[in-house]
């Protein structure tokens, strides 16, 4: 029997994973981390190199895992020249240092851009996903089909057990998704699959896939404009494209809004992050559409921050009024693309739940010291890190850029939620602390450069 079996059972079972934890969960998690490390250190070269350098032969305590957690920046540690010059075999060699499955045998003949590279890997069973790459450089993480299936199942669990009204009407509500029909982001396919299980017919906001190559090109151009290296003709072309893109996006949002308002007589499910919900509010007001556009039993799911979108301090309250729903009809959640499963927010408990297969670590700002209470009791503030026990294609240990407050022993009415609660979330890069620096990031990137001989 594998130490991971209880966690697969919680993901795939019929019970609420946020409210029905097995006894001695902390001990079960530690046993599963020990098993994962023993397996993955033989498969992931960067992990093996790191473990050897810091002298960790096995994970016997939570503290042993801290130096083995990867900084989130490591997944964009490849030289940009690999993409600029079409060195796809080199990019695959870089990916191999971070992957548990072999990628060396993938046929790359005829690949002419990064999306074609990702498509070719997908055909070979490596479901690579990328980050937004707003800075001009994407993160790439290799996952398996099992990882994709796990994400889909976790989305269903969040929908069913994160909101009682979704659970009441499973399979009946029209679903409105503020997302494209495909693309490089991890959650597109799983959310589309989950929506088919949670609701009735699905309406998408966007009609074009999100391509990594387009995102990279846009981010680099913004960077070139900011540092003054862009040519006037390049700036003019970029601005012209931006106007055309904005015009087309406006048409897509209008079409989505029209279809949504046409369903005001029935409860629907609307999914999107906070920034997209706010974008819809602004568009409706530009068109003179009054608040209260939906049936009062409509549920909206959301998460994340504003992602650079400008909005007033009370934007969440305004969004609730716009849809014409009650605050409890909002299913807010906390998670990230590197994590299988996000935790729902509970107004009663005043915190985000954490999936039982996600082991939370609170570190100091540098990402070096574990701040978790040794006895499992207390409230801790620091940098959020985690180990995802269900990750298959990659190492599940991540150090994030988030500053959090975690209550490891919540008291009072917890809405039935078990385990630690995340009380507050912020981004170090957005706070007074300044830049988001991790002491281990430079060391890990030097490992990668040595492994791919660049």
UniProtKB/TrEMBL annotation:
UniProt organism field: Paraburkholderia sprentiae WSM5005
Superkingdom of the source species: Bacteria
Lineage: Bacteria, Pseudomonadati, Pseudomonadota, Betaproteobacteria, Burkholderiales
Protein name listed in UniProt: Acyl-protein synthetase LuxE domain-containing protein
Keywords: Plasmid
